[in-house]
Design goal:
The structure holds 2 protein chains of 2 kinds. Chain A is of the alpha+beta class. Chain A is about 70% helix and about 10% strand. Helix content of chain B is about 30%, strand content about 25%. At the A-B interface, strand 2 of A face helix 6 of B.
Chain lengths: ~260, ~270
């Protein structure tokens, strides 16, 4: 009797339900596999070490998980979500189908948006740490603005990309970004043009060394012995006076090497 | 009968200042409110957040050098003056201060040791790096044999004009600075060359193989030191450079400034 009841059930349930369940099951297994593989891959790439200490990772850890865990879970859920939608498509239930059509295009985007957000937040934190590390030797309180600025620039870009993924109108934000980049490039160019010019000239001077430490040279009105030369400036000393000449001046005025 | 604590009390009676050499955080905390006019921390870096702090560029193994450096640095900044009596807590065996020294400050203590590092033309970091390279070289020698070396640091333009090349300059058109990781190996190889290394104010190695030609008038260095020391001492009198010499015969590292010997270190003890 047991067997016939089962047969009865099997004959009443359409075959595509079984397929749907099988798909779901496969999806579950593949999802778990993907989660495991992602975790392995991220560990192999040294991601946990690279992002250690960022705010995001610390927050994640305070919730008992980690960035790698979150990313791996996300990948697993994505596969599971795909399996779920395929299963529903197979069962061919009309109202679910309509819902799915709407979701099918949206879920991958949402997934990407979340992924971009996580990567962006971690990257932003990392950039802040990196810049702060570079400026650690500079004992200037105001310098702490720079790492923060770098962090929020990355956050802003990230938010823009993530919002773009889910089709939110970002026109105004884009214009703001353009204005920001323009200001950075334009004002930075104005502010640093002396340094850039000196640096470019300094590259040549250091590579070719037309004069070197110990040579007596004359640049414009300044005459003396070269004491030091680096990328940006040349120190020329005469009679206890040390002139610090920007390399761009050495280049624009030309220099005279005095042979003794 | 005097007790032990009286013995210690004798040492710290009426001191004007307390000098702590490389104290740990907790050690500093305990003495932060000590009843003295001056509390000075002398260490490689101000990790305890002390108000008055003298930077120690080199961990002098000789406690006398360490104390001398700390006092000179404090005199330089008018923290202490001639006649002050100081108690110095320094570490000889352990990491935490384990000994107490009572010293009376006098002007004769200005040996120029502090000035050698802090008031030379070259950056303090460069002087320290060169001394460390010399110590390293003295310790290992070249292929087990003792080597000698002469570094002239700072005022490189003038030094170059008071010297002539013995051969081609291996550092020509190179941009090597003392303190770069490769330099130790490089200098060890080049130390077999005769002549002096010339290092600029910011640590760039300008030349090797230089024959120094200073006028040696009025140079007062101890008798018995060789030509290398004489040349090194003399060039510091003629220019604003300092000279750091590794002796080939007795293996000592000596530093000259203004024609005078200001520092003598045994590399084996570092």
């Amino acid at each position: 009797m047991q067997g016939s009841a089962f047969d009865d059930l099997a004959s009443r349930v359409p075959i595509r339900f079984w397929i749907a369940i099988a798909v779901l099951f496969v999806g579950l297994v593949v999802g778990l596999l993907v989660r495991w593989a992602t975790r392995k891959l991220l560990h192999a790439m040294g991601v946990p070490g690279a992002i250690e200490g960022t705010t995001f990772d610390r927050t994640a850890r305070s919730f008992g998980t980690s960035t790698v865990g979150i990313l791996a879970n996300l990948a697993g859920y994505f596969v599971l979500g795909v399996a779920l939608s395929v299963a529903f498509a197979v069962t061919d239930i009309a109202y679910v189908q309509r819902l799915l059509d709407a979701l099918a295009s949206f879920i991958p985007q949402l997934f990407l948006a979340v992924l971009v957000l996580i990567i962006g937040v971690v990257l932003g934190d990392k950039v802040e740490l990196f810049v702060a590390e570079r400026f650690r030797g500079v004992k200037l309180p105001q310098i702490s603005v720079v790492p923060t600025l770098a962090k929020y620039s990355v956050f802003y870009l990230t938010a823009l990309i993530a919002l773009g993924q889910v089709d939110v109108a970002t026109g105004a934000l884009l214009i703001l970004l353009a204005a920001y980049v323009f200001a950075l490039v334009f004002l930075g160019g104005i502010a640093f043009h002396q340094l850039l010019a000196s640096g470019a000239a300094g590259t040549y001077l250091l590579l070719r060394q037309p004069y070197t430490i110990g040579d007596e040279i004359r640049v414009g009105e300044t005459r003396g012995i070269v004491q030091e030369m680096d990328l940006f400036v040349t120190h020329v000393e005469s009679d206890d006076e040390e002139f610090v000449l920007p390399n761009s001046k050495v280049f624009s005025d030309g220099f005279v090497r005095i042979r003794s | 009968m005097a007790t032990l604590s009286e013995c210690l009390g004798e040492l710290v009676r009426d001191v004007d200042g307390l000098f702590l050499f490389s104290p740990s955080g907790s050690y500093y905390e305990r003495f932060a409110d000590a009843d003295v006019d001056q509390l000075v921390v002398v260490a490689a870096e101000n990790s305890v957040g002390a108000e008055t702090f003298v930077e120690l560029p080199l961990q002098f193994d000789d406690v006398e050098d360490r104390v001398r450096f700390g006092i000179e640095g404090s005199m330089d900044r008018n923290l202490v003056e001639d006649g002050d009596v100081l108690a110095c807590a320094a570490a000889i065996f352990d990491d935490d201060p384990d000994s107490l020294v009572r010293v009376r400050v006098n002007e004769a203590m200005r040996s120029g040791l502090y000035g050698l590092f802090m008031h030379s033309r070259a950056d303090p970091g460069v002087v320290r790096d060169v001394v460390e390279v010399a110590i390293e070289l003295g310790k290992k020698g070249q292929k087990g044999k003792p080597v000698g070396a002469l570094f002239v640091v700072g005022d490189a333009g003038k030094v170059m004009n008071k010297s002539r090349p013995l051969s081609y300059n291996p550092f020509e058109k190179s941009h090597v600075h003392v303190g770069d990781p490769i330099v130790n190996v490089m200098l060890k190889e080049f130390s077999r060359l005769d002549g002096a290394f010339v290092v600029s104010d910011q640590g760039k190695i300008v030349s090797a193989y230089r024959y120094l030609e200073p006028s040696a008038e009025g140079v007062d260095i101890p008798k018995g030191l060789g030509a290398r020391h004489m040349a090194g001492g003399a060039i510091t009198r003629d220019t604003n450079a300092i000279a750091i010499v590794l002796s080939e015969s007795d293996g000592m590292v000596r530093a000259f400034k203004g024609g005078n010997l200001v520092l003598e270190l045994d590399p084996e003890e570092h």
